[in-house]
Amino acid sequence: MTVSDVLERNLPPIAAAVRNIVIFVTVLSIPLAAAQTLGLSSAETSGWILAIYGVPGLLSLILAVIYRQPLLVTGNLFFIIFISGLGNRLSYPELIGASMLAGAGVLVVGLLGLTEWVARWLPVPIMFGLLAGAVLPFIRDAFTTLGDAPAVVGGTLLAYLISRALLRERVPAILPALVTGIAVTALTGQFEPLTEPLSLVGPVLTWPVFSWEAVITATPVFIVLITLQANLPSIRFLQSQGYDVPEVVIDIVSGFGTMVGSLLGPTGISLSLPATSLMAGAGAGEHRIRHRSVYLAGGAALLIGLLAGIAAGLAGMTPPALLLTLAGLSVVDVLGHALKQATEGPLFLGPLFAFTIALSEISFLGFGSYFWSMVTGTAVSLLLETDALQALREKEDKPAQAATSDRDLAAEPICEQHPATR
Question: Do 125 and 347 contact (CB within 8 A), yes or no?
Answer without folding.
Answer: yes
